[in-house]
Design goal:
heterodimer, A: about 325 residues, alpha+beta, Helix Hairpins, Immunoglobulin-like, Cytochrome Bc1 Complex, Chain D, domain 2, five-stranded mixed β-sheet, 7 helices, 12 strands, elongated, B: about 550 residues, mainly alpha, Cytochrome C Oxidase, Chain A
Amino acid sequence: MQSQLPFYPEQASNFAGSVDSLMLYLSLVSLFFAAGITVAIVFFFFRFHRKKPDEVGVPIYGNMRLEATWIIIPFFLAMTMFGWGAVVYVEYRHPPLDTLDIYIVAKQWMWKAQQPTGLREINELHVPVGRDVKLILASEDVIHDFFVPAFRVKMDVVPGRYNTMWFRPTKVGRYHFFCSQYCGTNHAMMGGWVTVMEPSDYAAWLSGSSGAEADPVALGEKLFVEKACSTCHLASGLGRAPSLNGLYGTKVLLADGSAVTADDAYIRESILQPNAKIVAGYQPLMPAFQGQLTEEQILGLIAYIKSLQALPAPPKGAGIAPATEKK
Amino acid sequence: MPREHYLNASYGIRSWLLTTDHKRIALLYLIGVTFFFFVGGTFATMIRIHLLTPTGYLVSPETYNKLFTMHGVAMIFFFLIPSIPAVLGNFLVPLMIGAKDVAFPRINLLSWYIYITGGCFVLYSFFTGGLDTGWTFYTPLSSVYSNSAVTPAVIGIFINGFSSILTGLNFVVTIHTMRAPGMTWFRLPLFIWAQYATSIIFILGTPVIAITLLLVGLERMFHLGFFNPALGGDPILFQHLFWFYSHPAVYIMILPAMGVVSEIIPTFARKPIFGYSFIAGSSIAIAVIGFLVWAHHMFMTGQSTYSALAFSLLSYLVAIPSAVKVFNWASTLYKGSISYDTPMLYALGFIGLFLIGGLTGLFLACLGLDIHIHDTYFVVAHFHYIMVGGAVMGYVGALHFWWPKIAGKLYPEFLARVAAVILFIGFNLTFFPQFILGYLGMPRRYHNYPPEFQVLNVMSTAGASILALGYLLPMIYLTWSMRYGKVAGPNPWPATGLEWRIDSPPPAENFHVTPEVDWEPYDFGNRPDLGLAAPLTPSHAPAHGDD
């Protein structure tokens, strides 16, 4: 990536413009104050230079009006910086609804990306231009951070949870990505390239790359039987655990009366620590799978559960009756 | 026969190692922090040489990671945090308030031994495998994955924490109970206000870092799951605990330097400081609000948007008292009688560099902008402007200002001014390019980098060699002056504080007669004892310093 302007990396995503505008605004305000104070100090320094060795300055103890001025004006300027920055950040932290979801698994010291088709890449990421892309980030070991300077986006990749980030690439090209959270010996080598392609090229690339390894849905389906999930999570909803058909993306009512959206983070947590959130009407019977599954196996299970999204959900409350009868 | 003072009151190694004289303890600390500054500086030099080429010039990745980690640990925990409080604070707090010593002289000596003990553990870690976790010790890298000597290092920092706590406690009690008659709170030198605010942070913050690092050690040794998600722990919890101390620790480093600048500027502008109570109050405001901004280091961890909004807002609020100080310092120069003496050059250099460091802090507190610049060289540049441009300039300036009092001798003035200018230029050349590197996207803690970043890295390394010269010069001529410098006399500048009314070096018991204070701080116009002309405009100092 060769930057075209000396002080900016290339602008290649929807966030690049807004982050650069913020940078410009803060730089101008800072330059104004830094220059003003520096000029004042240098001017006083020479103008009020001591002329006689026993000379004394004019005693001035302060001025309330000045103090108020230089508290209030910086305060309001600071609030504009806060407000504008908050607007950009809130947009960044709330991805739009219809996104292209790509899973990223980080480990010392490499990045694995998994396209929605199951196609996997290592230290490379291909995305179509103009499409909202959401990355779902998981770590196998320590904290990493996925950083694309040309997109002006980054997010920590924290073990034990999913973080998400999103962007819309606006320019075809190849851009550096880096790990920007120190993660051990080869931290500086843990980078790669994002390739932004025309949508048609991207589609061709997806279908053309026969390198598609294990299909995550198939992996998940296999695990679903091997780990005996299928003995309780019956599709009919009549098992000891809720049916997973049509679950993904819906609101789930919990035993404590609250509700939660069944997204990746929720499903992950429910696999690893099932007792963290109990679905209303069910008993906390499921064993915890914490430490027993790799990140890729978890992704497989989520992909499988996601694939059940299209199937019709059983009627509400189908499984609740037997559970309550036991009491 | 020479006059008896604290340096020659008794002789022999025992008289130093068992001393309870706060001035001698200050010198013991001076030796300790200078040693660690040298250790940390050596690591920094190797880092900058290594980064001359994109593929790394000098060392392996493992060694590079150890170099920046040990640079950070040595500089922060064993140089910056104790530098001004433990060296100059110990020397000056009793002198400035008119006391014969601190409230607990033996605890004061104990705190130095604790510091040295902690330092030995950390050096043991450095030389038996090194430390490669980053000075931030982020988990689970530090608690599970690192193969370096983490355990002795965290034990060393844990032990060292008690030294800070005891020093803080000593200062708070001393300032409350041992002020001379007439030394009211609003007559205190502003350095004392800064030390007081720093001591509060020492007492309230240090226990948290001590416990946190102990938990890291326990997780490492006994696999207790505090932070490791595989054991049910939460790695982000560590960051909350760590920054709850380590952000206020930034104010531990910068507040005393602000106190120093608040002493130097009125002295060399020869007039009362502008807005005394605003400068004093802003120190306390920084200490208090500084405890409420820690999660601004964590905007990109996936913390909730609401929490990010709150911490960003609070971070902007803590910037206001810092701005108030800068405006008041600049205004103090107006209609002053300004001299170009070395301490003044350091104080003005401090304002310039702190201004850049503080303003770039606004960039990092800005949520939208932090998405891009978080964990890049922009951060590295920002905190070096605060810690080196601010805290170290303040420390070196303070050494020059009080050197005549500490050693009783004057340093070579011309050479000292040259060194101050070299430091200022070398510093900017080293760290300003790093702001640009960061915005271009170079992440921090990289032992190699894409070739397009090389020009700026070479500039930075060139600046660092100038900077190193700027530090070596004062080390040489200050040491030289102890033997060969001109005799300073009690008050060479002259300055208004109580410490300047006694001989240089001060007698062992400080004041033969307890002084009584009946003047306002920095009131050069109403101090006939200083031998200065009457002020151009007659004035009467108001009771609380400003109108």
